[in-house]
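In this section we walk through a basic example: taking a raw amino acid sequence and producing a predicted 3D structure, encoded as discrete structure tokens. The instruction is simple. Fold the sequence below.
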Amino acid sequence: MTRDRLGRVRDISYANGRSRSIDYVGDSDEIRKIVIDKKTTFEHSQGRNWTSRDQYGRMGTWTGDMSMSQDGVFSYTGQDGLTHNYLRNGRDVIRSGNDDGRRDPGRRDNSDSGSERQRRDGSDRNRGRRELSDAAFDQTVKQVFDQAVTNKEDYKQALFGAAADRKPVVMVFGRSSDPESRQLVETAIKQARAGDSGQKAMFAFVDLDKVDPNSAIGRYGNEYIDRNYGSPFTMVFTQKQGVGKTPVIPEPALFYQRGQLDGDRIGAAIAQAQEIQSQREFADLPDNFRRDRSSTADAPLKNIEDLLKQANKPELTNQQQYDLYRQAIDAADKLNRPEVSGATRMELGLACIRWGAGHQSGGDTQKASQSFETGAQWLLDAGHVNPRIYQDPQFIARLKNSDLPGTAAEELLTRGQQNSDWYRPTQAEAQADSGAWQKKYQEAMQVLNDAMKKPRTRPRTTPLRPESDPYGFNGAESANR
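The resulting token sequence is shown next.
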């Protein structure tokens, strides 16, 4: 670390090989220009606005505050209010500001520039930001994304799967340890996934905490996140036909944005990209990604739909209907399509709840209770097979509108959205106790039975699926491998 005649840090090299070079405004501590890793230059323009230029001459803008402490801690606060403290050992420590408004020890007085005031204001905005546990965030990623990318093979799976299903790719680069990345996934990405275009794209999450930083995708992601001053970024792109060992070639992104964004914007970008991608076929994909577009390829799916329609015939007994639903489930499991397997289980679960309501109205409370519990079991199994069912607006509406007593529907949804396997023991629990499965299941059933005894508060609606997709099978092939 080198200093100027006023003792201000001019050049600093960090333990991880990175560097900063700083120019100041006159004799003040206000930063005029900073060069990061001898590649990207940020120059202060006006207020909190900065212009940037990377090593390739590409221009950009950034809004926020920057400062350098006397002991070499470089700090910056973006529009989201989060403050990143880049320490001498190369660690990037993120905080949401000092709640008591005091300045950090060793930080120079930047009150004239207003940066400390901005950081304190940001703490109020971000105090409620949820920092999910690792397990909870992993569950969210599992529900929202088709592919979690941690290596080259995962990346190829995402691209090949999207090409096979003629879908564009929504790729999010972030870090599971970063609150801003978690907020992005929990809000905009989840909103986009649940929207009208959500099933028309392959969603992939590149967790740079788990990717080899020396790999091609690791270098790419880290470079862009560094250029974006630590913020995650989202892109929507199409692919074109490649040659030989490179059967697909990603095209320049139709949509790119760093940091937080509106899920509707992603949805609009997906719709635009889908118009392009849906017209393309890819001839050189590996065999396990090839799709048969002939009419015979749809025969198993049509057979499942026919079984579900037959099971809904009112003239059949409950047992006859149950047998047809089970046939549909068995047929769905042979397709290796989680969306279809989950949907067939959902249909049987909701049917059991209807039968329970019939038994209840007829005065047979014992059969009613058994049917309600069986229905809940099948719904739990549906969420296990396809965790994204808990984000499906149609499933949510149908469950809330069902005859499941009390607040059991809300209990199922709340717990399922937090962890689709909440009723199952973890691997460690199962290994430690051979009776863990039964105990966990009994605890879950007790929770639901208690909820069924509470007063029902949810309103009834009349949710309808489009006639072209009555069971929600369409537009979900990319996640079915």
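Looking at the output, two observations stand out. Residues 2-126 form one domain. The radius of gyration is 27 Å. In the next section we compare this with other chains.
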